[in-house]
Amino acid sequence: MGRNRRVAQQLTLHEDRLFPAESRLRDIARRIHASVRDLPIISPHGHTDPAWFATDAAWTDATSLLLAPDHYLYRMLYSQGIALQALGLRDQDETAGAADPREAWRIFAGHYHLFRGTPSALWLDQVFAQVFELEHRLSAATADQYFDHIGACLQRPGFRPRALFESFNIEVLTTTESPLDQLQHHESLRRSGW
Length: 194
Hints:
By secondary structure, this protein is mainly α. The chain has a single domain (47-192), classed as uronate isomerase, domain 2, chain A, CATH 1.10.2020.10. It has helices at 23-36, 50-55, 62-67, 71-79, 101-110, 119-131, 143-154, 161-167, 184-192, and strands at residues 41-43, 170-173. It has a two-stranded parallel ribbon. The mean pLDDT is 90.
C-alpha cells in the first residue's frame, strides 16, 4: 500500500491577480497599471522598523524578517489557538518567547492555508516568488526549504535593509513606532545623510 505524499504546489502569480474579472474593466486596469508601475513607491503605511535602516544590519532568518514584525500574521495565528510565545513574541511583561525561529516558521508554514485570499498572502506570495525566487507554495512540506533559502539570501549584501529599499525604488516609506518612542533611529538616519 503506497503512502500518501504531499507534493509541493507550484507558486505562480497571475499577472492580473488584482485586476477586475470583467474584461473591459481589466483592460482599463492594465493600462493604468502600465502607466504607473515603474514610478517610485510612496508608502504611507509601511509597517517598518526605523532601526532596520538606521543600523542596516542583516536580518537573521525568515522569522525575524517576515513573521515576527507582522502583527497581521501572528494575530491570525493567535486567533486559531497558537500561543504567541510559540512564535517567539514577547509577553506583555516583555519576557521573550522561547521559540526557536525555525520552529516558529514551521508553525507559520503549517498554518499558511489560513491566509488564503487575504492581503497578507497576496503580499507574501509576491515576496516569495519575486524577491526570493521560490518556486513552490509555502506549506508544512516546504517550511525548511523556505527557511534555509531565505536565510541564505539574507546573508547577501543585496538583501540588507538599505539595499532592498533602493532596489524597490522606494521614495517615501513610513515607519511604525510606539507613541512613546524617542525616535533615536530617526535621528541616527538624519545624521547619516542616507
